[in-house]
Specification:
Elements (H helix, E strand, L loop, with lengths): L1 H5 L1 E14 L3 E8 L3 E7 L18 E7 L5 E10 L12 H13 L7 H13 L6 H15 L22 E4 L3 E3 L10 E3 L1 H12 L3 H5 L5 H41 L1
Parallel strand pairs: 3-5
Antiparallel strand pairs: 1-2, 1-4, 2-3, 4-5, 6-7, 6-8
Bound molecules: zinc ion.
The site of zinc ion has 8 residues, from loops.
Amino acid sequence: MERSRDKLYRTEAVALRRVDVGEADRILTLYTPQFGKIRAIAKGVRRLTSHLGGHLELFTRSKLLLAKGRDLDYVSQAETVDPFIVFRDDPNLIWYPYYIAELLDRLSADNLANPPAYQLLLDTLGWVGRAKEPDLLLRWYELQLLGLLGYRPELHRCLICKTPLEPDEGHAFSVQGGVICPTCAPTQRATAISLASFKVLRLLQRSADYREVDKVHVSDTIGSEVKRILNSYLQYILERELRSAQFLAHAHEEIAVPINS
Ligand SMILES: [Zn+2]
């Protein structure tokens, strides 16, 4: 009795991704407050009779009981806490949660607890359908998430000369990790950034509560510029992480050869 109880653990989770396997099973990528990103299998979940079924939908906040397995853990019980119903039926909003989940999935490492990132996920999903400008919500989420996962772009001191940045025209953004002052900008490979977009980036970074951002109106032009800047930065980070993961895999192979031979 004791032994089997030790193998069980409880956690809250949001399902970021799911892959159907076998006849009725599903492998879930879950984001949890105390274990970070984990993967677990839900046995028989695609059967109509499954008691797990409705409680393991994508982007649903659930309470789970999991059992330790050899390779993957098993979802034993699930109970919905918040289905974030607002965006479920609105075709204009349907891709937002997919993007929110995918970005977290791609930027976060497995089994690395980050309770603030979990809270950010809940907050952002909760704002989809309520935010006045849903695209601005995504930009806020991107900047907040980058900060929580260790990729916070520098918006207050020049990336090159470290001088405090004044609210002026003539700044540039570098995918190396932040803004460059008007003096250094011409010497660097960086994208020019308007003063308005610079200010929006700072607002998004300093507002831990989305309510402060939701009060602000951002024009389409500025919205597009901010989106371009953050997209290029995210692209750069994701490619760099991918390269270092490939390098590590390769390095392990290299090391493995003499040990095995
Ligand atoms: Zn500078």
